[in-house]
Amino acid sequence: MHDWYKHDNIKFYLDENAGVSSLLCQRYAHIKETGTGKRATICGGEQRIKNVYMSNTHQVQVEIVPTHSGAQAAAFLLQYNGKQT
Fold this sequence. Notes:
With about 80 residues, this protein is an all-beta fold. The protein has strands at about 1-5, 15, 25-35, 40-45, 60-65, 75.
């Protein structure tokens, strides 16, 4: 993920994937891996470029989290690469 969002004064949410000792998370998207039930939340605000998910299968669903009314939209890019086995 490439993250260009200005991180001042943004609303954060608890990251449900991190467990009890979780950090706050600016949610950008949710990933669900088809066939495995594996899920992940893509969070911003930590680094400009980072790896956010590696699938075990060939099919994932990505749901972009909508911006709340009046909030500044996040500027991010999800990059994906295929891998031959």
